[in-house]
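Objective 1b. Sequence-to-structure analysis of pectate lyase.
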Amino acid sequence: MGVHSLSRSRSWPLIAGLALALTFGAVVLSQNAFAATVFSDNFEDGNTDGWSKSGGDWAVGTDGSRVLTQTKTSTDNARQFAGSTGWTDYSVTARVKPLSLGSGGHVGLLARSTGATVYYRLALRPGNSVQLQAVNGSTVTVLGSVTRTVSTGTWYTLGIETSGSTIRGLVDGTVIASATSSAIGNGRIGLQTAYSSASFDDVAVVTGGTPTPTTPAPSATGSPRPSASPSRTPGPSPSVSPPPTGWPTPSGSAPVNNGTIQVSGVFDGGMKRYCCIGDGGQGESQDPVFELAPGATIKNVILGAPAGDGIHCTGNCTIQNVWWEDVGEDAATFLGGSDYYVIGGGARKASDKIFQHNGPGTVHISGFYAEDFGKLYRACGNCSSSYQRHVVIDNVRVTDGDSIAGININWGDTARFTRITVISDPSIVICDKYHGVPKGSEPTHVGSGADGVNCFYSPSDITYQ
């Protein structure tokens, strides 16, 4: 069966009613506001129920998993629509693989479609071009564009965010265009090709933020924990509430008497303090308090001291509203997935790193508070397996730290920063750059600061208080 947040045969009247009553307000969970998924489809049910076709030859096929593919390259307008015309402010994402790109053609994602030819479109185009467009019949207004590699046979995650008159387009989690447009105020989502063929998968609509659909994890040979394919459901949205400034009071104690707690599915700690493992020092190979299976979520937990090696994610994971009172070896280590999310919470007293990234993929950190630390994030520079790693840090507050992120530029790592608040710490380094080395050697520090290649931020992204 496909993965759907609501049964699509019954969902549209309910969703439309929610849109009118709530204007898609964010759902409040614990101390932070999180978006609600109102539609998702990964086509694992083998059909396109709930979608409306307009042109083209569409069919659900197999590409590792089931995907929706459009194969007719002679048409200039093959589309599939879903959702409600009453939808206003939302984010839509989809994984998109161009199979062929004809001259003058494109492969795209649509938002706020009020008719067959009226919508916002994020288009992958020939010649390594991506454009965010407002389309009204034959009139196409380019709201923003970027030159970046667009290859056939490669999966890309496309996203469109609509909030009032603000329209943003994202590729693989990176904003490529942001514009003000009041041309279209509401409408459905859509998938589209023109003189091209493409496959689509993991479509998701949320009421705020940008969910990042996950893909099967790369092999993580050499990782200290086994890797497995994570859940293919959409990832959570970033925190939209301001990061916290204080520390929560535990609701009770939960002694860790029998070693590491294994977590699959969702674990809600009810804001209890979990303790104790390890010696509280920086010694390597300490056991974690929690080990998360691929696709697992841990939330509403306080880790007391000593906390050993904190939390291990063996695959894709979500760490939501988790607090470390005294970081030992590391607060959390990401081992073998493709997308890992830290939403809300905080950590302090980390003499080295808070978050250690050993496996492949992207770590997303949002709504987080850190104080008295070495680095908020470090991409491993001398693990037994070397990967290209990425981190997206948004809406965080930090104080009394050495640097926010450390990455390895010789392996193509990237770090992206938005809405960073630095408190009483003007000397903190935003982005440290290293040359990664084989296991047994020490990485070399080669510089710091924004460069538009590996470290991405502008002065307006950093606020000093």
